[in-house]
Design goal:
This protein starts with 5 loop residues before the first helix and ends with a helix. It has about 375 residues and is mostly helical.
Length: about 375
């Protein structure tokens, strides 16, 4: 490729990233585990932009830093494909559809005092998500578990996660054990990982300054590891008990909106920002909670290939990768129990798994089909 070809190639990559992540941000239901599975299908299997090993390295890095892991994975993928422009475009396009949808839901919530009914659609979408996650786990498992030693690390990580050990502790412990074993190849270390609505339009008790709102969500985005449930604990302390900007029922509704809309779960911040200060509040809160993710990826993204080239640091990444697969497996089992609840949902999950294995079709079509079937089944009850 000549130097004259590089700018058009990079511009094409940025356009492809924008379209891919706009679509994912519109159709990626199911939380971070499902988002990661859909990104693997899109960028590893369909587009072959990077290998499974490279993808798992990025997954491990995204889980290790604070903030929304699937959004950070999107930002890593953008940087890997198209540099700094790709970093910005991938993250922005993954967040934007969810932020717009959540803002619309927040407007309806403020106007009518309750959340819109979406139970029928989600009834069908959830089992499709389980099928997507299961397929991704099979693929990841073949890539990450390259020896009996790594299999043992993965089993220990899954067991620790099931006992409730912090995901970050599980990942660091798995990486440290593998790095120590690589540094001392004559020994294999045993991996011991211990358990370590009310009317929404009511006047709020305290006036909300936009700067303070931004700083609250900037702190959350910089410190929170884990799922939307961890986010709930942070937000309760700051917004219900601290500033009294929200009531308990409003906070629970906000987290529910982040769960049932596609894209990043952290768009809960968009909903809260709108409730507190309208459209400016939604914008400020969204920027605040996601800004640390862009900064953290910008700092760490260039380092990941260098880390992989190091013998001991590469072993650390091997441990983190297999532990990340184990954590996804535990989360997938938990999601499956909540999603596959009767014969229709079991049939939707089985049909989706068969279709995903048989055809290289974008998983968004299965999500759409599951939503339509779910609405149909739900309406016949």
């Amino acid at each position: 490729m000549t130097s004259h070809d590089a700018p058009p190639r990079r511009a094409r990559d940025v356009r492809e990233l924008a379209l891919a992540f706009l679509r994912l941000g519109t159709t990626a239901f199911g939380g971070p585990v499902a988002h990661i599975a859909m990104m693997e299908q899109e960028f590893v299997r369909r587009r072959a932009w990077l290998s499974r090993e490279e993808f798992l390295d990025l997954v491990g890095a995204a889980v290790l830093i604070p903030g929304p892991s699937s959004t950070e994975l999107a930002i890593y993928l953008g940087y890997r494909r198209a540099g700094w422009r790709g970093l910005l475009v991938a993250g922005f396009c993954f967040i934007l559809p969810a932020a717009l949808m959540v803002t619309a839901v927040a407007w309806a919530y403020v106007r009518y005092g309750q959340l819109p009914a979406v139970s029928g659609m989600l009834y069908g979408v959830k089992p499709v998500i389980i099928a997507i996650v299961a397929q991704a786990l099979l693929v990841f498992g073949r890539t990450a578990v390259r020896s009996a030693w790594l299999a043992a690390i993965g089993i220990a990580a899954a067991f620790a996660s099931a006992l409730g050990v912090s995901p970050v502790l599980v990942l660091f412990a798995a990486g440290a054990v593998c790095a120590a074993a690589r540094a001392h190849p004559g020994r294999r270390m045993a991996a011991w990982i211990g358990p370590a609505p009310l009317g929404a339009s009511a006047v709020l008790a305290a006036p909300a300054g936009l700067l303070k709102l931004f700083l609250v969500f900037l702190k959350v985005g910089a410190l929170v590891f884990g799922s939307g449930y961890v986010l709930l604990a942070f937000l309760r302390g700051d917004l219900v008990e601290g500033t009294h900007w929200l009531t308990e029922p409003q906070l629970i509704d906000a987290v529910a909106v982040g769960q049932f809309t596609p894209g990043p779960v952290f768009t809960t911040a968009t909903f809260i920002g709108y409730i507190v200060a309208g459209v400016p509040g939604a914008l400020v809160a969204t920027i605040g909670i996601f800004l640390p993710s862009f900064l953290l990826v910008a700092v760490s993204g260039p380092l990941i290939p260098r880390v992989r080239r190091s013998r001991i640091a590469g072993a650390f990444l091997d441990g983190v990768s297999v532990a990340a697969v184990a954590l996804m497996g535990v989360a997938g089992v938990q999601l499956g129990r909540a999603a596959i609840v009767d014969v229709p949902t079991a049939l939707i999950a089985a049909a989706s798994a068969g279709g995903l294995c048989r055809w290289r079709v974008n998983s968004a079509w299965f999500v759409l089909g599951g939503g339509l079937l779910g609405a149909l089944f739900h309406g016949l009850r």
